[in-house]
Structure formats: structure tokens, C-alpha cells
Amino acid sequence: MIKIVLVDDHQLVRQGIRSLLEQESDFSVVGEESNGREGVELVKKLQPDILLSDLAMGDFGGIDMTKALCACCPQTKTIILSMYGDPISVRHALKEGARGWVLKGNSIDELVTAIRAVYAGECYSSKELAE
Fold this sequence. Notes:
Low-confidence stretches: none
Mean pLDDT: 93
Shape: globular
Oligomer: single chain
Helix content: 40-55%
Number of helices: 6
Largest sheet: 6 strands, parallel
Strand order of the largest sheet: 2-1-3-4-5-6
């Protein structure tokens, strides 16, 4: 079972992603949070396999979370979810330890593929980012 924590400042987004991911027999969304600082504490507590985090959440977003968790929770792999895929932000996230980047405009199938790839030890970026 792949244990997942969701962190996004939009409740509707979290609920939608949770509902779709829980249709996968090998996924379990073990927790969710609405901001990065509380998300870090939740990840420390639950020790999930995957953290799905929004890029921008006030003053402590997905990249900040990734950086904070690399030292204390190296088994948790971060996938950044964002509406944007600017190369500078993507490179910065990967430099800080993120293992994936998925555009929010893409399908649930792509997110499922990304989660499985990152869980297996690969890096993953939405296809549009490679263009």
C-alpha cells in the first residue's frame, strides 16, 4: 500500500484528489493538511511514502516543505502539484529534493503514473515540461 499525504490550501482540490486516488487499490491517503508548516508536522507524524504538495501556499509552500523534510523524513518522496511549470521553479524544486512535478491541469491518470514512478524510485515530470 502506498501511503500518501496531501497538502493544498484549497479544500475542494484536496477532497477531489483524495476521492480519485482512493479508487486505486494500492493507494491510501493517510492525511491531508491546508498549509505547509502543518503539513511538515503531519508528514513527520505519519511518515508517508509520498507527499503531494501544492507549490504555492502562502509563505511556506511545496518547495519549502520538501527542503524541510529531506533531512528528517528521507523516505517520504515529494511530488509538487502546480498550475505552472516554469523551468526555474521546477529546477529549484528538484534541487531541493522533490522527486516529481505534475501540472494540475493534467488528468488523474498522469498523477497516478507519477505516484507509482516516484514510489518506485524514479523522478517524474509532466510531459509538457519536457517540451
